[in-house]
Request: fold
Amino acid sequence: MTIDELYYKIIDQDIIWWILSNPRLKTQPIKKAVIRPVLINNQMMYQIETFTEKQAFHENVTSDGLLHSVQKIMVESSFKQLDIFTKKHDYHVLVNKRGEIMVKTAPPTKQVATMAHNQKKQYILEAGTPIPFLIALGVMTSSGKVVDKKYNKFKQINRFVEMIDDIITNFDETGTQDDSDTSSNRTLHIIDFGSGKSYLTFALYHYLVYIKKRQVKITGLDLKAEVIADCNLLKDQLGYADLSFKVGDINDYVTEEPISMVISLHACNTATDAALKKAVLWDAKVIMSVPCCHAEFNQQIGKDNFYGLIEHGIIKERVSALMTDAFRSKWLEAMGYRVQLLEFVDMAHTPKNIMIRAIKNSQPNIQLLKEAQVLQKELGVNLTIFN
Ligand SMILES: C[S@@+](CC[C@H](N)C(=O)[O-])C[C@H]1O[C@@H](n2cnc3c(N)ncnc32)[C@H](O)[C@@H]1O
Reply:
């Protein structure tokens, strides 16, 4: 059988996702590709997400272009493995050097379709199903309808939780978590820094505890005492026993507990740096952060820098934001993390659109740190992340 033949055999089934993996050559830059259906402007498309060691790239193709794209990726990256999950079956495909395939069909293991034809996007938190914390936070009406004004927030928290879900699954599969952990150590300790009204914190708790049945301990921290008091009231009303909210500055926050994951969503300016630094100090296995308001670099860099190319305010602002996150990722790499910078949500929904996802995978590398420090000096900045 060939890939074309398989494709035409399964095309009528609702496809949940495709995973292309296991490149024949270790030097091959694309390590994996994931394809899932998405609805864009009411048109059914397929999102192709390709992953290198450090980056993820997205491309959307129509169903007409899907087969061609899959074949192109399979050939260019010389993937040996293809897994296709549909509502009816799982297909595990091995590809030999001549491009011939061997298909093993198994009962379906993925029941949640990310998208089905002619349906709205299925989020982790589903629109149309009343979810108490979303109602209490004004994101949903009591009938489960997402409030128009809150749609972007709804989309963001869904996307964030979806990305955390990818990581947690990965942990379980690769055994990155210490299998000798006692059950209490297997509790996921998560801190959400700059949690604000804590849409994300509640969403994560709801998802991990009630949907994934995980044991968790989640803390939200923010400077705003009133907002935190409201969050604590709500979590008591909801009976979310392992969720707590604290008032405080990220810089001063101390804990004796082992922290599995640090997250932050739009923690302003250098509050993101504080979150990253605490995570590294605690040796957190996973860090997921969507920064915002990159003022520090912008204030320090002169207009004449970058060969005079940033004299326009808008360019300077965007270069500053990108450079800040580039330096943050260099710093995290130097601290022994594998870093990916991912598109968070569509630009149409928020321009604060880069997610830094970092997974601890090695020892700190002082040489890398020195190189990054030299680089920032050459640019004439002195960033919080290095101090
Ligand atoms: C833009 S809001 C984002 C809130 C929330 N994460 C969300 O996405 O809805 C940023 C939050 O970070 C908090 N914050 C800023 N600097 C902080 C710091 N140093 N320590 C703790 N919280 C901080 C602010 O009080 C604010 O609530």
Q: What stands out?
A: DSSP finds ten helices and 14 strands in the chain. Residues 194-197, 199-200, 221-224, 249-251, 265-268, 271, 274 surround S-adenosylmethionine (CB under 6 Å). The chain has two domains: 3-106, 132-386. The CA atoms of residues 125 and 158 lie 6 Å apart.
